[in-house]
Amino acid sequence: MSTVPWIPSPKTPIEYLKYGLGVNSSDVVLDLGCGDGRVLLEFAKAGAHTICIEINRILCNVAQLAFRVHGMENKIDVICKDFFSVDLANIKPKPTIVYAYLYPSTLEALSNKLENELDTCTIIATLDFPIRGWSPVFVKHIIDENDHSRTVWIYVNGFSNPKARQLTESGMVGLADLPNYCTCRRKLFLL
Ligand SMILES: C[S@@+](CC[C@H](N)C(=O)[O-])C[C@H]1O[C@@H](n2cnc3c(N)ncnc32)[C@H](O)[C@@H]1O
Question: Do residues 113 and 84 touch, judged by C-beta distance below 8 A?
Answer without folding.
Answer: yes
